[in-house]
Amino acid sequence: MGKVIHFLNTKKVKDLNEQACKELQVLWDELKKFKFDLTWLEPQVQSGLGIGSYVEKALEVEKLKGNVADLEMEIETLKAKLAAAEVNLDIERDLLKAGGIKERDLNSELSSGSWKP
User: Fold this and answer.
1) Cβ within 8 Å of residue 54, ≥6 positions away
2) DSSP 8-state class, residue 113
3) How high is the pLDDT of residue 112?
4) What is the pTM of this model?
5) For the segment 14-41, what is each residue's pLDDT rounded down to a tens digit?
6) Summary count for the chain: helices (H), strands (E)
7) 56-90 burial, b if ≥16 CB within 10 A, otherwise e?
8) Does residue 56 belong to any structural domain of this protein?
9) Euclidean distance between CA atoms 37 and 29, whole angstroms
10) How many domains does the chain have?
11) Is 60 a domain residue?
């Protein structure tokens, strides 16, 4: 009984990963073999066992939030690169026009006559 009580008193919610929950379950199963009246302790043990899955999911959510933040930063970087590329494209078009070179559709068919000088 002392091991279960010690476990409950020394562990924090964030410590209750899958391994810790298994440890608590083993301690609880060993204690129940002695057939003591454990009704006063059972709610705390069951709560501890239930928290384990919550903690695992909460940690996964935090990890995913971090991933979202990283991706949002990457989006902003890519938007800035796109804006710079669009400015460069406009500059190049203006230079070509100033040099007398006409912009043409590279996907047009040769038979359409759009490639005549």
Assistant:
1) none
2) S
3) 64
4) 0.49
5) 778 788 888 888 988 888 888 888 888 7
6) 3, 0
7) eeeeeeeeeeeeeeeeeeeeeeeeeeeeeeeeeee
8) yes
9) 14
10) 1
11) yes
